[in-house]
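Give me the fold.
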Amino acid sequence: MGDLLYHVQAKAAWFCRRFFPFMMIMNLRVFALAFFALMAVFCLSPAKASAATFSEWVADFAAQAEANGISRRFYFSVFEGIDQEDASVLDKAAYQPEFTTPLWEYLDGRVNNVSVRAGLAEKSRYHDMLQQIERRYGVAPEVLLAIWSVETKYGEVLRKSKRLHYVPRALATLAWGDRKRTSFARSQLLAALKIMRDDKIGRDKMYGSWAGAMGQTQFIPTSYLTYAVDEDGDGRRDIWDSVADALASSANLLAKNGWQRGEGWGIEVAMNKSLMGQNGQSKTLSAWQQLGITKADGSRLPGGQAMATLSLPAGLDGPAFLLLKNFSVIKRYNNTDAYALAVLLLADQLAGRPAPKTAWGRPPDAVTFAEKLEMQRLLRERGLYQGEVDGWFGDESRTALKEFEGRRGLPVTGQPTQNLLKALRVTGNR
């Protein structure tokens, strides 16, 4: 903040020296508006526009690290050979799917036949270990598997080095270049340094997400320090290579934040327009029952004094839920409703419970996850796509789709639609 104020003060002084001769003849109100508009521009400019380069920021932060018990020698060994920021971190920080992707599409990509089938296989593989973790922490195996799936696709993401970032560099980049996350990134960087020093985690392990999340279930460094456990008993808290440590650490996080053993996360209720006025309100289940609210299948809502919050995550274009305590606990992992819904709806599927009775509203031209898989296969058959057939329409899939659109003389959008799927099917049959 001090750097920012100095920057603004310097610009203000320059402005006054440059334009003082005109101030006497300008309307005072016009001058004031012009002055504060200019100050707003300077205050809102990106943090990385300051005089300090990334390398200078890293060098300066050594003093704060030292004040927190990290020796300068160790600190600079962590950053050895790094003299540039990770630009892709800043790009990803500006795009978070929880906030930018339509809810139905976000859920489609995470709760589908592929994630369910893989989760059931892992459930069988780690049956005994999952049962042991449930006995100790009270968190159902399906919930832990769902977190593992949503975070890293059961560890698959960790095997794709191109998607990973060296955590100290990523956090330093955020602290230097993203004003909204400066405080967060600084605290996480200090925690990451302590992990590397105290838990003897080498540079080769310290790779994770753009925001510094690490391991099979993506713990940010401060969460690791607080909640990571050694479940397999080898004397190390290894959330990277030990599935037991990773899932038990997640269970410990949930348990310490109030997870209700043996309780559900929410109840789907019958949807009607009158609910819109009470969206977001919290009442006891008995109070909701007295208001005439029923389950989505028409059966009677359970009573009791448990508090439940009415949520219409997609408005009138999707299911309505009464959310219980465990829903809010999941949000300690990622504080968005979209994330919590993805985890808990997938957990339901892994436990053999049905999907919501009410369908999520979709645009008429939208494609399902299964249809995205088909589109990728068809693009691959035409030699336009070399990536994985995984249903995730990232840059490579969209580039391939744009190439197909261009060849067919169609508007180039790169967006998967029913019309493009039909065009691919017809072309593929020739």
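The chain has a mean pLDDT of 88.
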